[in-house]
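Data card: per-record layout.
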Amino acid sequence: MEAVAVAVALGFLLLAAAGDEAREAAAVRALLTRLLGPGPAAAFSVSVERALAAESGLDTYRLSGGGAGARVQVLGSTGVAAAAGLHRYLRDFCGCHVAWSGSQLRLPQPLPAVPEVLTEATPNRYRYYQNVCTQSYSFVWWDWARWEREIDWMALNGINLALAWSGQEAIWQRVYLALGLTQSEIDEYFTGPAFLAWGRMGNLHTWDGPLPRSWHLKQLYLQHRILDRMRSFGMIPVLPAFAGHVPKAITRVFPQVNVTQLGSWGHFNCSYSCSFLLAPEDRLFTIVGSRFLWELTKEFGTDHIYGADTFNEMQPPSSEPSYLAAATAAVYQAMIAVDPEATWLLQGWLFQHQPDFWGPAQVGAVLRAVPRGRLLVLDLFAESQPVYIRTASFQGQPFIWCMLHNFGGNHGLFGALEAVNRGPAAARLFPNSTMVGTGMAPEGIGQNEVVYALMAELGWRKDPVADLGAWVTSFAARRYGVSHKDAEAAWRLLLRSVYNCSGEACSGHNRSPLVRRPSLQMVTTVWYNRSDVFEAWGLLLTAAPALASSPAFRYDLVDVTRQAAQELISLYYEEVRTTYRNKELVPLLRAGGMLAYELLPALDKVLASDSHFLLGSWLEQAHEAAVSEAEAHFYEQNSRYQLTLWGPEGNILDYANKQLAGLVANYYTPRWRLFMEMLVESLAQGIPFQQHQFDKNAFQLEQAFVLSTQRYPSQPQGDTVDLAKKFFLKYYPRWVAGSCDRLTTPGSCSPQTPTPGRFLGPGAGQASQKVPRPG
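The structure for this 775-residue chain is written out next.
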């Protein structure tokens, strides 16, 4: 009888496994149809078989077939593996490209044959995606259609572990009501939608809230669809868990509760920060944590991995290892009280962000408080400041090597591709390494797509890319659908400059004078030779007649023109500062006028030619998430605050800066004009420049922008190539004239510095040469 029972149980398990395989294969086939259309999709055969993986947990795909009359065979050990194999075929055999800004999917006919059966296995268990902040900086207003495209992108790039944190406030609302809090107390606690990431990590409460009832309903609906789709591919969604933070109102309901009020965060006062943290020994800790997880898993099911961050950018109330161990254990115990199989996904940012506090004893207390293997640590900023090296591979706890790359969702060409390329392999070779995966953890997406293409590919590679120059050349050809020597040369220049940051100083946070509140103390130094950016700009314009039909090329042309404008603003700002300090009024007027009245408006026009660079598109997403005019206005104000003041008083001013048409015209430009007016007034009257007074006046402009209801176009205007060419002809000669003694190192300029004619033909730029150089 016992043998029969075992056989029956095994039979059910095999049926379940077969059902999962069939579901995952169907999900990949549906993705293929969405991507290529029904006709082209029919040329592929997709199947999923767990047995393909030689080693359990290491996703594997196999490609074969193709050629005249033959279907391409895509086999994966999971749905994610099959999708990654499909992407590999489209990329390497068909020259296709899948990207946020638009995909290039021109298939050769017939489909190329796979010469030999190609089998590839990932070197590690996980390919992780997202940052808690991504939920606010990029995903906040998304509907299901946009989420569907993102999950397809994730599957094609082999992502099998990702946060799924939508809808959790609706669950918390149920928990708090059950505990005895009133609806008004709950409403007062939640932040507005654009700031939920920091409410979830305990950094903020209340700011720019409350959440409308419709928000909770829509997010619950979205979370169900997100989870269903992720699971259909065989991805593992990471659900949230209780980290210990509670509303202040908990002390009304439970007067004897043991709580500690943490310090302030992000220059916010305690009206919006200074979270209340339950003491780990208080019985309420387990009650709240387990009740939340029970409600959450009842609503959404579970895949047994949960994220929680108790001390994200907040100093714990005690550095005693015993306290830190108890606080950590309490979070874990609340998880396993509901789910005995729970694994805790911890962002390792706290160890990197406050290294003076997190010494060996403190780090060890956290890492040892959870059974080995049940804490999965994200080494979040490993491309620049890896933590695994100074913690002996997180003292035996498994970790994921992550590339953070971007802060605040900023625009700006940036990358540390050499460090990214070599980092994962080095981490695997580290003595007694416990690395179990790679990850992409940007605060914001939709920028620097080359960086993410490389990182996604590295998730399937055991070794670094041997020749990044050759790799980026191929990337350009796939991106535009055709090989073009000038475009490829432009990308190699970008690789050696903006994408070649190295050392701990590298940060994907744009601090250009363009997007900062002006002062006379701004830093303009960069890690690269700016002439490479201008050379790449010219080369892209040279390629424009051949490549202008490519949406990705037009996007890149806007992006590189935007970067060139950013460099020019540094040039003119230095002229402004120098002429002011030298008390030269006329040159000050000339340089400042060029910056604030010509260059910035011209940049706004270029940005307006592409839908990805429109303030109107960003705000329209917020409007479409609303169910009433009042709600639309509230959501729009959330968006404007996040992009600019990031708090009622400019608390984290311009952290989430973006270069969008409309934002440049009506936020950055008025601020620069005010700065110039006050500098000129200072010089004309012979009185020192009053930075404090300027800051007060600038805040009035900034706040007026946030509170404004002005609508902005959500459709592009003008021709990108024409606008970029005019911009180049006007400003490139000024770069040539001003660069050698202003922005580059001595001796780096050549007497043969190229003229516009080199890129755009004889006679190019003749009219623009009549305009005098700045200063």
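Known properties of this structure: DSSP finds 28 helices and 15 strands in the chain. The longest helix spans residues 2-36.

See the next section for split statistics.
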